[in-house]
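step=encode ok
step=design start
structure_in=
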């Protein structure tokens, strides 16, 4: 309850400054930095999770182990080490791993904050107008974003890369989009769904660039670190951990919501479950319905003809991927700041109805609340631990629905048709 009261106080504070502040001036930017520091401190305090655990448990030791004892990279029982990505990706953290721990932690956190801030500033168009300020507010009060920073994860560092991929694809720079999306997918595997999207939309340059870039990285990893280490990675984290659902409190997708409701007592169980047949059927049914809705929306809307249409479809794929992935940790939801910001700033060039605006506001709130773990001492434990715990999923479904509606509303527009050509990027529409 105290955490929610703290969050409400933050909303009131940023709402008050949102109405009158000018964050484009030097004084306004200084005020914004102070406001961001206050919001981040309050949200990190109000959020569950051990401080910087992902960095200290996985990234920091992994960046050194890959050089000194690579065969121990996935031995989680040794020094509490649990690196779960492709071996070559551990090299990304080597510059931090040879620093003293406090300096490395501060440096890593600072890099993440700068990258997230750059994405926020880009999405807000330099915080111009009320729409730009609204985007800044979304970042300031994002629980999943604060959660990612608190854990020392790197999800929030991928927001500018994801934005780069989206904007590149919308402007016809398919190769750039494919390479950027390959980088995101190697770190967050659910984004492999974009590879199928590029194939389905016959974006051959993006498809080849994404598949080729990922294949090149995997091949280089094999050459550097051998087959045995990769077999261990595939067995443990592709066909093992990554293929079965986790239903802890900080997993927010269809599988998590089903587990929260029907399999109590697992809110602090971070090990993949052996799902019963009914659980698998329910999860796969929701997955099938979601993919069918995506396919129907894209079929009815037709081939994208504008930058806005491309952005909308990419956002739909992102939101669908988060819902249907076997494991969607809550910090993954910080990536949804991209579609939320694009909706708020009108980048989809569709006028939202009052109902859509209200739905968007509720969805943004549900997606942005702090990440909390209900306990037995709370009032209404059944509601909190089985239903309310999945409010993030409810918000994601609402956002997915709005994005699908927006994409269908674009059918009325009829700008000049432009088609991609294999071998070079297609030109941007006027």
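sequence_out=
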């Amino acid at each position: 309850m105290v955490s929610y009261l703290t969050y409400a106080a933050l909303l009131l504070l940023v709402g008050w400054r949102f109405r009158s502040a000018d964050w484009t001036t030097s004084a306004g930017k200084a005020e914004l930095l102070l406001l961001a520091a206050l919001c981040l401190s309050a949200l990190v305090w109000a959020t569950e999770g051990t401080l910087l655990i992902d960095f200290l448990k996985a990234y920091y030791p992994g960046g050194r182990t890959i050089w000194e004892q690579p065969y121990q990279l996935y031995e989680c029982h040794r020094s509490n080490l649990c690196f779960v990505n492709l071996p070559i990706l551990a090299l990304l953290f080597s510059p931090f791993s040879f620093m003293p721990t406090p300096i490395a932690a501060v440096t890593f956190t600072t890099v993440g904050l700068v990258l997230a801030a750059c994405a926020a500033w880009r999405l807000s168009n330099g915080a111009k107008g009320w729409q730009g300020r609204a985007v800044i507010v979304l970042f300031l009060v994002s629980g999943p974003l604060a959660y990612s920073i608190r854990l020392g994860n790197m999800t929030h560092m991928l927001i500018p890369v994801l934005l780069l991929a989206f904007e590149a694809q919308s402007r016809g720079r398919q190769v750039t989009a494919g390479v950027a999306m390959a980088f995101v997918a190697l770190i967050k595997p659910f984004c492999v769904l974009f590879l199928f999207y590029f194939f389905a939309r016959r974006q051959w340059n993006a498809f080849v660039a994404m598949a080729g870039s990922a294949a090149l990285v995997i091949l280089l990893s094999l050459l550097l670190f051998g087959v045995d280490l990769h077999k261990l990675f595939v067995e443990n984290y592709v066909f093992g951990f990554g293929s079965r659902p986790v239903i802890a409190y900080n997993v927010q997708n269809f599988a998590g919501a089903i587990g929260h409701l029907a399999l109590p007592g697992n809110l602090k169980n971070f090990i993949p479950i052996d799902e019963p047949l009914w659980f698998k059927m329910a999860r796969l049914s929701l997955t099938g319905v979601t993919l069918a809705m995506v396919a129907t929306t894209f079929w009815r809307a037709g081939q994208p003809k504008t930058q806005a249409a491309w952005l909308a479809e990419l956002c739909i794929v992102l939101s669908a991927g988060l819902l249907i992935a076997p494991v969607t940790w809550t910090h993954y939801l910080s990536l949804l700041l991209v579609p939320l910001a694009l909706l708020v700033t009108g980048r989809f060039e569709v006028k939202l109805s009052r109902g859509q605006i209200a739905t968007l506001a509720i969805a943004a709130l549900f997606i942005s609340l702090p990440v909390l773990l209900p306990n037995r001492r709370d009032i209404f434990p059944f509601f909190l631990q089985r239903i309310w715990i999945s409010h993030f999923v409810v918000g994601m479904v609402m956002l997915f629905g709005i994005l699908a509606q927006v994409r269908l509303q674009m059918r009325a527009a009829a700008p000049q048709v432009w088609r991609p050509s294999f071998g070079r990027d297609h030109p941007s529409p006027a």
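step=design ok
step=annotate ok -> Residues 414-430 have pLDDT under 50 and may be disordered.
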